[in-house]
Amino acid sequence: MNTFTPIAIVSPEKQDEYDATRHEKLQRFLKNEGFAFKPVKGYFNGVIENSYVVMLHGEKFLESLLEAMFNSDFRQESILYVDANRYAKLIYNDEEEVELGKFHAIDKSLVKTLSAYTYDHANDIYYTTSHEGMKATGEIEIDKTKGL
């Protein structure tokens, strides 16, 4: 079985409102803490958010990210966490976790049927979660040479 670097998908946005200052603050935090990250679009129940895929190289990185997203100025309700085996779950700020299944690439034509997905616009790839048994077909790539 392939193992991948765990990732988190986070957004500094609140209630469908874009705020450049919050994005700049999150990017600054991620850079200062040594995270590799890239921008993506997150879609959930009709709302599109400017989000970031964050590479998590160890448990310390996840804890640091959770602390920042839940207890700082960002005050987010949840983050999407994808483990090394590509299993995804939502982690809520009250420590509740909801298992979502495998995180995998999907055909663009299926997006209209989904209530939640992630769009990697740099590579024109859509990702979502599925139930047990579906094969993960892609991984979001982060190119550290492009100034992340």
Q: Identify low-pLDDT runs.
A: 131-139, 143-148
Beta-strand residue fraction: 35-45%
Q: What is the terminal-to-terminal distance? A: 29 Å
Helix content: 10-25%
- Taken together, the total number of domains comes to 1
The count of strands amounts to 8
Q: Which strands sit side by side, in order, in the main sheet?
A: 1-3-2-7-8-6-5-4
Largest sheet: 8 strands, antiparallel, barrel
Morphology: globular
Succession of helices and strands: EHEEHEEEEE
Average of the residue pLDDT scores: 83
Give the number of helices. 2
Main attributes of the structure:
globular, 2 helices, disordered C terminus, alpha+beta, eight-stranded antiparallel β-barrel, 148 residues, single chain
Q: How is this fold's topology laid out?
A:
Elements: E1 7-10, H1 20-32, E2 37-44, E3 47-55, H2 59-71, E4 78-82, E5 87-92, E6 97-106, E7 116-120, E8 125-130
Protein architecture, described:
This protein is of the alpha+beta class. The protein has one domain. Helices cover 18% and strands 36% of the residues. It has an 8-stranded antiparallel β-barrel with strand order 1-3-2-7-8-6-5-4.
Short account of what is shown:
With 148 residues, the chain is of the alpha+beta class. It has helices at 20-32, 59-71, and strands at 7-10, 37-44, 47-55, 78-82, 87-92, 97-106, 116-120, 125-130.
